[in-house]
Amino acid sequence: MKTIISVVVLLAASALAGDVAGTWTGTFKASGGDHTVPQVVILKQDGNKLTGSAGPQVQEQYPIENGKVDGDHVTFELTSGEWRFSYDLRLAAKDEMKGDLALKSINNSRTATVSLKRTKRD
Amino acid sequence: MRKIILQVHLLVALIAGAFIAVLGATGSVIAFEPELDRLTHAHLSYVSPSGRVLTLQEIGDAVSRKSGGEPIVAYLLSESPDISWEVVLPRGIASVNQYTGEVLGVRTRGQSALGFARELHVRLASGDAGRNIAKWSGVATLISVTSGLYLWWPAKRMRIRGFRRNRSFWFELHNSAGIFLLVPLFVLAATGAVIGFEDQASRLLGKLNRPHTIRSGETATSPRTMPCAAEITTDQAVAIARAQMPGAVLYRVQMPRYGGAYRVSLDDPQDRVAGARNLMVIDRCSGDVISSSRSSDLLLAERILAANEAIHTGEVLGMPSRILACLTSVAVPVQVISGLLLWLRRRKIMPTAERGGVV
């Protein structure tokens, strides 16, 4: 019985998870920062679990950890050098995500706003 | 004319004085940020040099054993033999004794008092609005220093006759500190203002640049994303990078899992302005140098901005200039407070008609 319930819950969660697989490009801007930073995010989706990579360009990508899709809510983390990036995004449209990014390093913590558009679907 | 200059001096201080004082106080702290950070984490920071320094592979293995196989993001090497090395992990940064492989501890990421001091200095810990106030405060400091020199000039007072609880003590302190630190204060304010307006400065300086061409060692090759039969080791990647820049000092290695290739950073000790801006990107399979950017290849505008930053932080002449930058920064809140006390006491004791005359 427990197994059946677990399967039903998992299937329901998968059905509720938005489709975010593909390549997303955009920028983030840290609060109080001078520049916008380019972003290329390559997402692979398996139900509500997200894997893939992200970075400033296709040639420089960092593996995504703890990726999750919950309805239109997308969260994932990555480590880029000394900084830990925690993305908290929402699907603003079918091919558009917006949200916040928390950046943490030793001694420092900053926030940024992120805007991404899907340029390629998987 | 003198009355107008005095009014400008007072007005600028009243509007921006509090911000200028914060910039000075925090600047004096972050002038020695690495040292203060080590002092507050002494158990993680200091080691006793003994025997040979372990290879990066050996250090990586020791950290992996301790962290349950957590992947290594990067190695940060210290500049001194008695300071521990650091290994960047996804969950934090491990400090390691480079002679024994002992993991001294792991620091987690997040804001600290030192980080907050830096946030206050750069953007008053208030995002875009704070950043704008901070950069205009740099301009306000320049106006204060210049107008202060004009006001000081006729009497040329530069001595303090001991501590007294009266207005003349603050007057002497304000005059003496201001004139003794005039030049470094002006330099700090000017370089700080350039950093604040770096985008505009870059555009302006961009006109000095030669047309952009591919720099030496720069190629169009990208790091390979496909698996390869055998990968080179971290120490081999470092040896390849070192061979490209003999005499340079290794200070950082980023692993290929993070970014697709080894990224090896080297510091050229001969170049105090931009010596740390040397990066070799090494292919993890072939060991080829995919790209290299060197401090010697910086464009004129980039070098001017790097020099500006090195002057502002005091790095340009090493410890002596860092001490001078720190002392000058300490004097900033002293000037703001002594100026405010002068103004308050002047309002109390002087007849209205005399306000605005020679200070």
Name some characteristics of this structure.
heterodimer; A: 122 residues; mainly beta; 8 strands; B: alpha+beta; eight-stranded antiparallel beta sheet; 51% helix; disordered C terminus
Structure description:
- By secondary structure, chain A is mostly beta strands.
- In chain A, 12% of the residues lie in helices and 69% in strands.
- Chain A has one helix and eight strands, in the order αββββββββ.
- Chain A has one helix at residues 2-16, and strands at residues 22-30, 36-46, 49-57, 60-63, 65-70, 73-80, 83-93, 96-121.
- Chain A has a seven-stranded antiparallel β-barrel with strand order 1-2-3-5-6-7-8.
- Chain A starts with a helix and ends with a strand.
- The model of chain A has no long low-confidence stretch (mean pLDDT 89).
- With 359 residues, chain B is of the alpha+beta class.
- Helices cover 51% and strands 12% of the residues of chain B.
- Chain B is built from twelve helices and nine strands.
- Chain B has helices spanning 2-30, 33-40, 42-45, 56-67, 113-123, 127-152, 167-180, 182-196, 198-206, 234-244, 300-313, 319-349; strands at residues 74-76, 85-89, 92-96, 103-107, 110-111, 249-254, 262-267, 278-282, 289-293.
- Chain B has an eight-stranded antiparallel beta sheet.
- In chain B, strand 2 (85-89) and strand 3 form a beta hairpin.
- In chain B, helix 1 (2-30) crosses helix 12 (319-349), helix 5 packs across helix 6 (127-152) and helix 9 runs antiparallel to helix 11.
- Chain B is elongated and about 80 Å long.
- Chain A binds chain B through residues 31-35, 55, 58-63, 65, 79-84, 104-109, and chain B through 37, 73-74, 76, 88-90, 92-93, 107, 109-112, 114-115, 118-119, 122-123, 126-128, 130-131, 198-199, 222-223, 225, 254, 257-260.
